[in-house]
Amino acid sequence: MKFRCERDTLVEALASAGRAVANRGGALPVLSGVRAELTGDNLRLTGSDLELTIEIEITVAGERDGVAVLPAKISSDLVRSLGDPRVEVAVEGDEARITAGRFESSLRLLPADEFPRLAMPADDAVTLAAKDFAGALRQVVPAASADDARPILTGVLLAAEAGGLRLVATDSYRLAVRDLPGTSVLGEGQSVLVPSRALRELERLLGAAEEVTLRLGEREAAFEVGDVRLTTRLIEGEFPNYRGLIPASHPNRLTVGREALVEAVKRVKLMARELNTPVRLAMSSDGLELVAITQDVGQAHEQLDASYEGTELTVAFNPEYLLSGVEVTPGDEIHLDTVDAQKPAVIRAGEAQEFLYLLMPVRVS
């Protein structure tokens, strides 16, 4: 295999494929590499840990077709460091020679015949608007759990809902639900559970893209964005009955400016930074007061203009979880609906009904 290409193009492609490379112990050694396959002027780079696979195709000046597996980190770092913008890569035997200007290096390759055969994406495809899907991912994915001990909660549920697509994630402390009306991806009653790690990578890829193509298989989902394809193994199992977590009614409603609340929480939570002190929201007809008190450190208060309907109430929340929900709620105003200090609270946009964020309160003395 031998080809020439622009340094920046190769750096970006190696970095994209490299984000799926296996970094954990116990994985096949060959999965620490990026598979490069040259056909004519088309170079396909593939990184995979068998759960997540990222493939990217770039155009190069091909001279000799072939297949090789480059060690991911060193090859990416090496190409990024090159001073000359034109790079040549030539594979001979079990080594790849990388040259640029007066620089020359050789890298020991990983055995290409040990790189696993990866599942082919399904034939049926659905195209989605990238901007809308990226916005939904930004709102929902952070609520998924990062604890692999409960794999079901590390996924994001994609479900057919009222003629559209619903995305749901929860880590048992909070719940995010976003509807995309009119987006038909699944048949009626169908749902799949997609790993949140894959969707975080997908959100990164969507960037300035106009559309994303989704292909759903029995065990995999593939997302195609331009010249990049991201394939992930679906999570098997039953997602929790999230509907039962959402209170049927809320006797109390706070309406407050979203940006003002975001800035106030950021200031007040500084008092809670290290000791994970909750932020208390004291709601009354006088408005909203935010309070954080940490023993032996100090306290912080801030009063905000807000309208409140209901019984005077103080509720405490994890400040990071509260901020995470308020920041991604659309609109200038938000509603915070509560039952009492112990039951889940629901954050909604003032106007838009497509997004809901449920948050469990923290018990305080």
Describe the structure.
- This protein has 365 residues and is of the alpha+beta class.
- The protein folds into 3 domains: 2-114, DNA Polymerase III, Chain A, domain 2, CATH 3.10.150.10; 126-243, DNA Polymerase III, subunit A, domain 2 (DNA Polymerase III, Chain A, domain 2); 247-359, DNA Polymerase III, Chain A, domain 2.
- It is 18% helix and 43% strand.
- The protein contains 6 helices and 26 strands.
- It has helices spanning 7-18, 72-81, 130-140, 196-206, 258-268, 319-328, and strands spanning 2-6, 33-39, 42-48, 52-59, 61-64, 66-71, 86-92, 95-100, 103-108, 126-129, 155-161, 164-170, 174-181, 191-195, 211-216, 220-225, 228-233, 252-257, 279-284, 287-294, 298-304, 306-309, 313-317, 333-338, 345-349, 355-359.
- A 9-stranded antiparallel β-sheet has the order 14-11-12-13-26-25-24-18-22.
- Strand 3 (42-48) and strand 4 (52-59) form a beta hairpin.
- Helix 3 packs across helix 4.
- It is elongated.
- The mean pLDDT is 92.
Provide a brief overview of the structure.
This protein is α+β, with helices and mostly antiparallel strands and 365 residues long. Helix content is 18%, strand content 43%.
